Amino acid sequence: MKRKFNIPAFFLAAWLLILGLPHSAAAAEQDAGFWAIFSSTDHFESADDASRWRYWFDAQARYFDPGSVANQYLVRPGIGYDLNNNVTVWAGYARFRTQNTAGAYADEDRFWQQLTWTAAHWDQSSLSMRVRLEERSVSIGDDLGWVLRYMVKYAQPIGDSGNRTFFASLEPFFLLRETDWGGSSGLRQNRLSIGVTWKLSDRTSLDTGYMNQYSWADAGEDRMYHHGVVNLKMKF
């Protein structure tokens, strides 16, 4: 049976895209980039197959301004617990290494806590949210940074096969305190993503898409990146 087109869900996705476009983009310095991601999250196995505990792991290689040496690498493990069928709380740690255009390295230790929530469903479409708090310690500065991130994501199947899903997400970043490495507090970054999830098997999928990453600068021009993103997802 042909799936009906979901008008309210369509307008929600369009609203996310419009809201995520920075109004001052014309004044920003613009570059291209590419992110390669491997991620895995699922329930831990249990004897009764009803465990509420989950694991989280992702590893990323981020390449900014191809042709330069501006790169970033990270690993991020975590553990979660289902409060109910729609809400999960998480805690974890991340290790970052960043290389700037001059070839110098900076390391970062990042502890994080988050809540994920499947907020609504329309037919087979869904709206999910994630709130993440990060405590960031960077080798190039002395201050501890507190960052609040809020992501809203819309997903809707494409066609009748069940093997493709369109997604759109919006994620602003707020620095909760001024630091000597991250600038003044307030809205510092926004990420807008659109793409398609391809189901490869029952335990493997591939996200392919575009991310618009906008960063506000205290002095000088803001910066906008246009990233291609590939995320291989596997459950063990």
Structure, described:
- The chain is mainly beta.
- It is 6% helix and 63% strand.
- It has a single domain, classed as Beta Barrel (Porin), CATH 2.40.160.
- An eleven-stranded mixed beta barrel has the order 1-2-3-4-5-6-7-8-9-10-11.
- It has one helix spanning 7-20, and strands spanning 29-43, 53-64, 71-82, 87-99, 105-122, 125-138, 144-157, 164-175, 186-199, 204-215, 223-234.
- It has one helix and eleven strands.
- Mean pLDDT is 89; it is low at 1-5.
- It starts with 6 loop residues before the first helix and ends with a strand.
- 14% of the residues are buried.
Write the layout of secondary structure elements.
Elements: H1 7-20, E1 29-43, E2 53-64, E3 71-82, E4 87-99, E5 105-122, E6 125-138, E7 144-157, E8 164-175, E9 186-199, E10 204-215, E11 223-234
Parallel strand pairs: 1-11
Antiparallel strand pairs: 1-2, 2-3, 3-4, 4-5, 5-6, 6-7, 7-8, 8-9, 9-10, 10-11
- How would a crystallographer describe the biggest sheet? 11 strands, mixed, barrel
- The CATH topology, please? Porin
The structure class reads mainly beta
| CA-based gyration radius | 19 Å
